[in-house]
Design a protein that fits this description.
There is one protein chain. It contains seven helices and no strands. Helix 5 runs antiparallel to helix 7. It is 77% helix and 0% strand.
């Protein structure tokens, strides 16, 4: 049953991931009068490099997690893991970190996305370093934490869609609240679970 739930979620997540890629295409011919790019014209000369790196490599990072989660004993696990580490540490997370300084949602949005990017780097690096030390329990712990942070982009879009359809939240802080829910409580619950299982 759990395996079926995993497969269902990942099928949904792959669909959302490709939707993220699709709706990112207009950013290559930017319109600063609407949506995500409002207020970004003055910083576009350098911001665009972080944006393009993020919208290309963050979805790739997520797609690389799927076989790692579904087939952890696959012979290609190590190679895919190395590719994931390179993509996250060199491209997806650093670009997200730069973008976080200009995130929507005021100072709360900035703190939230800065924390997300820094923790993504932290968990991914520790997953990699513990694998090199053959500390596979710690490797698994930090790899799952890295996945939770990577998966926040998927849950952010999913929660946003559900909020629009069900009209659950309607305030100036809705974006920040949904962003918060996409990873903070999940990561905290995961850490509590990990501590209690010892």
């Amino acid at each position: 049953m759990l395996r079926l739930v995993k497969y269902f979620y990942f099928l949904l997540a792959i669909f959302i991931c490709f939707e993220i890629i699709r709706i990112s295409i207009p950013y290559y011919t930017p319109d600063f009068g609407k949506g995500f790019l409002i207020g970004k014209e003055e910083i576009w000369s350098f911001y665009k490099f972080a944006l393009y790196a993020h919208i290309i490599f963050a979805p790739l990072a997520f797609l690389l997690t799927i076989p790692q989660i579904l087939y952890p004993k696959w012979s290609a696990h190590r190679s895919i893991g190395k590719a994931y580490v390179i993509v996250v540490l060199l491209l997806a997370a650093p670009s997200g970190l730069i973008m976080a300084f200009f995130a929507h949602g005021g100072w709360m949005g900035k703190v939230l996305f800065l924390s997300l990017s820094i923790l993504w780097i932290f968990y991914t690096y520790l997953a990699f370093s513990n694998a090199k030390k053959n500390q596979f329990d710690l490797h698994r712990k930090f790899a799952i934490g890295s996945f939770i942070l990577c998966n926040s982009a998927i849950l952010l879009r999913l929660f946003h869609y559900l909020n629009l359809k069900l009209d659950l939240l309607n305030s100036g802080n809705t974006y920040v609240i949904i962003s918060f829910l996409s990873w903070v409580p999940i990561l905290i619950m995961y850490e509590i679970y990990y501590l209690n299982r010892k």
